[in-house]
Amino acid sequence: MTQEDRRTLRTRAALRTAFVSQVLERGYAGVRVEHIAAAADVGRATFYTHFHDKEALYDHVVEVVLDELRERLAPVDRRGVGFTGRPVAELFRHAAEQPDVYRLILRGEGDGRGLRALTDAWTATAHEIFTERTRAQRTRPRVDLRVIARAWVGEQVSVLLWWLESPAPRPDTEQVVETLVELSRRGRYWATGFDSFSD
C-alpha cells in the first residue's frame, strides 16, 4: 500500500468519525459539510475530494459497517441445525465496538436511509442462512422464510438499540443474545410462561 493510499484511508476514517459525532451532536438535518470538515480537521476541498455530499459520506459509513459485518459472518456455518446464536452475537459485539455508529444508524438518522440499508442487508443474510439450513436439513418451512427473516431482524434491531442506549452498566451482552436465541428457538408463547397451546 502506498503512502497516498494510507493517507486516503486515514482521511476517510477521520471523516466517518467526524460525521458520526456531528450527527449525534446536532442531528442529521443540522449537520453541514463545514461542520464535518472542521471536526475532521480537514478543509472543505478535501471533503469534496472524497465525497460528493454528506449523503454520500453517510452511505459510505453504512457500507463500511455492512462490509465488516459480512466479513465477521463469513465463517458462520450456514448448513447446521437451528439457531446457533453466532450471527446475533457477532452483531452485538460489532455494535459494542462502534456504539456511536450503530446509534446513528439505528435511530433512523438521515430519513432512515442507514437503518433501511442495515435492515435490508441483515434480512437478506438471514434469509440466505435460513434457506441454506432448511435445504441442508431437508425441512419444510411452515412460514415464508422471508417473513421469518424480516421478523427476526426487526426484533434484533429493536433490542440492539435499546441495549446500546441503556444506562450503564448495560445488560449483559451474552444474556441478551441468549434471550434472543431462546425467543427464536421457542417463541413468544413459551417466553411469556405458557407451556402448551390451549383454546
The low-confidence runs, each spanning 5 or more residues with pLDDT under 50, are: none
Instruction: Give the number of DSSP strands.
Output: 0
Which class of secondary structure composition applies to the elements?
A: mainly alpha
CATH superfamily of the largest domain: Tetracycline Repressor, domain 2
* CATH domain fold name of the largest domain: Tetracycline Repressor, domain 2
End-to-end Cα distance, whole Å, is 67 Å
Count of separate DSSP helical elements: 9
Question: How many domain modules?
Answer: 2
Which CATH C-level class of the largest domain is it?
A: Mainly Alpha
SSE ordering:
HHHHHHHHH
State mean pLDDT (0 to 100 scale). Answer: 88
Taking the sheet with the most strands, its summary is:
none
Could you tell me the strand content as a percent range? Answer: under 5%
- Radius of gyration, in Å, reads 20 Å
Gross CATH architecture of the largest domain: Orthogonal Bundle
Tell me the overall shape: elongated
Percentage of residues in helical conformation: over 70%
Describe the structure in your own words:
- By secondary structure, this protein is mainly α.
- The chain has two domains: 1-51, Homeodomain-like (Arc Repressor Mutant, subunit A), CATH 1.10.10.60; 60-187, Orthogonal Bundle (Tetracycline Repressor, domain 2).
- It contains nine helices and no strands.
- It has helices at 3-26, 33-40, 44-50, 54-73, 86-97, 99-106, 113-137, 145-164, 173-191.
- α1 (3-26) packs across α2 (33-40) and α7 (113-137) crosses α8 (145-164).
- The longest helix has 25 residues, at 113-137.
- The radius of gyration is 20 Å and the shape is elongated.
- The mean pLDDT is 88.
